[in-house]
Design goal:
Radius of gyration: 11 Å
Largest sheet: 4 strands, antiparallel
Strand order of the largest sheet: 1-2-3-4
Strand content: over 45%
Order of helices and strands: EEEE
Shape: elongated
Number of helices: 0
């Protein structure tokens, strides 16, 4: 799990093969919110 420097899309990302799962973690509520699942490309984080 890697925190992104630019928070425009999501604060965290996780790579699964050719895909990226973009998500946020709420520690207080102990939840993970999946914001998007994208095939890795040059425009994945835009």
């Amino acid at each position: 799990m890697v925190a992104l420097q630019d928070l425009r899309v999501a604060p965290y990302r996780y790579r699964v093969g050719d895909y990226r799962i973009l998500f946020d973690i709420n520690d207080r509520e102990q939840t993970v919110l999946v914001l998007d699942i994208r095939r890795r490309s040059e425009t994945t984080y835009r």
